[in-house]
Amino acid sequence: MPLPVNLLMLMDELQRALSSLVSIDLTVVDQQQVTGGCISEGCRVVTENRQRHQQGWFVKRNHKSFLDNFQAEADGLTRLAAAATVGTPHPEAIGVSGEQAWLIMNWIDQKPPGAAFFRDLGAGLAEMHRCTSGTRIGLEHDNFLGAAKQVNQPQDRWVDFVAERRLGFQLRWGIDQQSIDGALRRNCERVIAGLDQFLDGRSENTSLLHGDLWSGNYLCDIEGRPVLIDPAVYYGCREAEFGMLMLFGACPELFYDSYQQVFPMNAGWQRRVNVYVLYHLLNHLNLFGNGYHGQCQQMTEQILRA
Fold first, then answer.
1. 195 close to 231: Cβ distance less than 8 angstroms
2. Which of 22, 28, 128, 172 is least crowded, fewest Cβ atoms below 10 Å from its Cβ?
3. Which residues are tagged catalytic?
4. pLDDT tens readout for residues 205-246
5. In CATH terms, is domain 115-305 a member of 3.90.1200.10?
6. Are 145 and 211 in contact (CB under 8 A)?
7. How far is CA 217 from CA 36, 77, 210, 248, 297, in A?
8. Domain 5-106 has CATH 3.30.200.20
9. pLDDT at residue 75 tops 80
10. Whether pTM exceeds 0.90
């Protein structure tokens, strides 16, 4: 049976992209769209070389204006891989083919995570934070938190970075697009003004952070090992790593116990992490609309009560 016209067109686009960005000797022999991405289209692609060796790829595509986002993602994956504590897919190629931007990575076969997975994820994340520990704050360039710009211009103090580059940026954005009302604005301003108090007790050292770590951004490979995907990296207080995990897809206690055994966080981190939950809530409010307004208000009130 002939392939549908739209599928043939996709196969042709994939062939041109793989040929121009990876190798002219690769022939696309199969593709399957992958669900789960909310920003870019994803495909599992199988290619064959002249020796008939087959290889699987994960291919993401979007409009060519999205190239900066793909380049930032590839940069983040490369930085995480350099720490060599948790697996990541390898970004094989990034570029433009036709009117599309493409990010091409090796395909990772998966299976459901077991208990050992969360133990290893906690330990691996802790080791990544430990081995990159230092004094850096921010990053030499901005990147993206989902579809939103993430401002990473360094500052000398972590509290100032959170006030200006994280909460302050989201607050100004929300005011500009009228997604934040007067009550939420006043609460956010009070939180920002009190950050020295609300973040007191943390370690002063900073670490390389994944930056957008939640249940949708880690995988269990076929060997049961953790793999991190879709980072929004920067250097910061490692307690900020847990903001998205507390908001979406919190891990079992084994994960946190394993992390604490390798690189313990100071007492009170569960209270301080609410500041970073607020950052992600404000980002979701600005990206997705008023459905997050109540949660933002509740989180500011919880921080202020503490």
1. no
2. 172
3. 212
4. 999 999 999 999 999 999 999 999 999 999 999 999 999 999
5. yes
6. yes
7. 11, 12, 10, 11, 26
8. yes
9. yes
10. yes
